[in-house]
Amino acid sequence: MELNGHRHTVVHRIPADKFTPTLPHPFRSLVPLRLISCALCILFLLPLLAGAAEPGSKENKEQQDTYQELETFANVLTLVQQFYVDQVNIRTMMHGAINGMLGSLDPHSGYMSPEDFQELEEETTGSFTGVGIEVTIRDGILTAVAPIEGTPADRLGIKPGDQILRIDGMLTKNMTLMEAMKKMRGPKGSTIKLSIHRGGWRGARDFTLVREDIPLFSVKSMELEPGYGYIRISNFQDSTTEDVLSALDMLRMRHPLKGLVLDLRNNPGGLLDQAIKVADIFLDHGVIVSTRSRNNQEQILYEAHPDTRVESYPMAVLINGGSASGAEIVAGALQDHKRARILGTTSFGKGSVQTIIPLPDGAGIRLTTAKYYTPSGDSIQATGIRPDIITPLDTPPGLHKSVAGQQMLREKDLPGHLNDDSAGVPQNTESETGNGNQEESFQQVNSILDITKRIEQDNQLRRALEVLKKD
Fold it and tell me: Span 413-433, mean pLDDT?
């Protein structure tokens, strides 16, 4: 996925026929700004006319404040239309205002144009056309989070932390994530030139990539030793649960399972229902996760289903700072139910749920609607899942020294992140920084295909195997 707006996101999807809000007619056509001003006034006067709040009440005061702010907004639009030096596109301005409004809430809420909404649907179903770079905005600069395995970006050597300064000669400084994604995507076989700066380089270097269909295989598996299986989940998409079940069947065909390593390192999340179903594979009772909306007014419990197929083999789950959202749901559930030992380093710490709400014109909004809690009732927002066995990943041989020293960006570092419900709770002070950037180091060892060499260089995987053999 070439978009971090939902890279670290657990999402609900609401079908268009279940949520189709309608707006007053002036919002659906280009009309004089004074009519828009009137429409805005009417829209927010309706609850007042309906007697929704008593005069002088707190609710009434909030509604009056909202009305005044909307009046100011409408006046500014009118002034821009009348006096701006060039002719303005009202639709573009309104979309920009909506995007700015949602973006001011938290790092994971935002507006999606019809094209953006369609591309999100494509990604969660398993493929898109592009070069295969996951990106974010860091310190105002478009920055590579990680290349997707086996893609043009991966083969050409794009690294996590690379700063993308230009796309086809256009500066990225003021681009949004959505704009950058659109420019990096395009027809299959077309080329794109990225100007990239990396720590230790003098100036930028140009990379020319050819766009391809980017399949998003979320599950890989292998046998570490006879009877000891390994399943890696890179993200949660529509087919993930089915793919995990198939991987387990393939492992059992080789040897009866004595233990399983579930690798969730650098897993950014994805679909909420798939994360829950994956956890349900390994649990036969109890709460998997709960979500709570504003002021805890609505709480939803997701529970495991009784299943005679659940086996009692020991499990180890690997996480790191790139494990977020859905990955944290799975790790937290298996940890709290003592179904698995958690190894690695503290996870990303994204404990919020985004609801994808379609709009009538084919666009949509991604709105943070709830926080999620582990079975023990803990929120991991901005704190993350703490491993049972802290095991920093050793820096692989050949990793660039300047890159190895970089630190991972986590939820708590994002401007405007939601407040942590667990603020003030003492944290484990045991060092887990290891020898540099844990997420970059994982990208290195994860590319090793030979299982013997992989175990030699991936000390977290080696430690997990040792734990399984002792249990």
Answer: 51
